[in-house]
Design a protein that fits this description.
Elements (H helix, E strand, L loop, with lengths): L1 E3 L2 E5 L1 E2 L3 E3 L4 E3 L2 E4 L9 E4 L2 E5 L15 H16 L4 E10 L4 H12 L4 E6 L2 E14 L15 E7 L4 E7 L2 E10 L3 H16 L5 H10 L6 H24 L8 E5 L2 H8 L7 E3 L5 H15 L4
Parallel strand pairs: 2-9, 9-11, 12-15, 15-16
Antiparallel strand pairs: 1-2, 3-4, 4-5, 6-8, 7-8, 7-10, 10-11, 12-13, 13-14
Helix pairs in contact: 3-5
Length: about 300
């Protein structure tokens, strides 16, 4: 979270698997109830409904404005950032993003969605918050994660932002994004989860918990028997090989360009692929995009463009 004059700039990466701010990361899962549920630790109360955050898995929707779920998750993200500063009231400017090739077409509608309520009162974890939403800025995913050091990237570079729902690919030459060479594919890490589920069922006739799959994706291992781990690793390795195959289809050449990998997919590359560390850089900070959104919004505010 950054502050400009009396406005707090809060960057939010609205992922399909996790919501990230500059300092927090939580599951995108959300369940709405008409009456107060039994367990209320991670409960948001807003607009006459009770929302449990972190439950279930949010369906992949190319258009995030179809329901109130992402707005409710936005309120939780704001509350987490304000709570860290012991604030319960604030004027907030939201800095968010969209997949590269979707930004132009969805930018205005997503901005209107995030700013549809000028003032919002809600309760998060039994604490009441009152916020004024002064505006929102929407930036392209992928670039945001490297924005702070992007101008120092010399030569030809490729940025691959591998999230839960999508993979965004962007060319940069001497620090300048190439608008004619950017791509968005529905090939995020959730596709890897589905592949693990399918192979595991084929090989064992058993189901496997997504929690175990996530643990393997993040850490490279989990507390399961060796035979089960072998199946999981086989599916994940095939998925990661497919990442690089798709990058090559978009023109990736290890010998002539640097590759920067951001997003949750970086863990998979780190744990399941042999790469040349001199030619591939992993942006390990899962909150890098949210920080990049804040960085770009702050620059625009200081220059008077917001």
């Amino acid at each position: 979270m950054k502050k400009f004059n009396d406005v707090f700039i809060i960057g939010i990466d609205h992922g399909y698997g996790n919501i990230k701010t500059a300092n927090h990361c939580f599951k995108t899962g959300i369940m709405a109830y008409e009456s107060e549920p039994l367990f209320t630790k991670d409960m948001l109360v807003w607009n006459g409904k009770y929302y449990l955050i972190g439950e279930g898995h949010k369906e992949f929707l190319p258009d995030k404005i179809r329901d109130d779920d992402y707005f409710a998750l936005t309120l939780v993200a704001i509350a987490k950032e304000l709570s860290a500063e012991n604030l319960t009231e604030a004027t907030v400017h939201i800095a968010a993003g969209l997949p590269l090739t979707w930004t132009a077409g969805q930018k205005e509608s997503f901005k209107a969605y995030l700013t549809k309520h000028d003032e919002v009162t809600f309760t998060w974890q039994h604490t009441e918050y009152k916020i004024k939403i002064s505006g929102a800025s929407i930036y392209p995913q992928g670039y945001a994660a490297v924005a702070e050091f992007g101008s120092a990237m010399s030569g030809v570079n490729m940025v691959a932002d591998i999230g839960n729902g999508t993979m965004n690919v962007l060319y940069m030459i001497d620090g300048r994004p190439q608008s004619g060479k950017m791509y968005t594919e529905k090939f995020g890490t959730y596709q890897c989860t589905l592949a693990v589920r399918e192979l595991f069922m084929q090989k064992t006739q058993r189901e496997i918990s997504d929690y175990i799959i996530d643990e393997v994706l993040c850490n490279g291992t989990a507390n399961v028997v060796q035979s089960d781990m072998k199946i999981i690793k086989s599916a994940v390795s095939d998925y990661v090989k497919d990442i690089f195959r798709r990058l090559r289809e978009h023109g990736y050449d290890e010998n002539t360009m640097m590759l920067y990998i951001t997003g949750g997919g970086g863990c998979l590359v780190k744990n399941f692929y042999k790469f040349n560390a001199d030619r591939v850089r992993l942006v390990d900070d899962i909150c890098a995009a949210a920080k990049g959104y804040e960085y770009m919004a702050e620059l625009q505010m200081k220059s008077g463009r917001i």
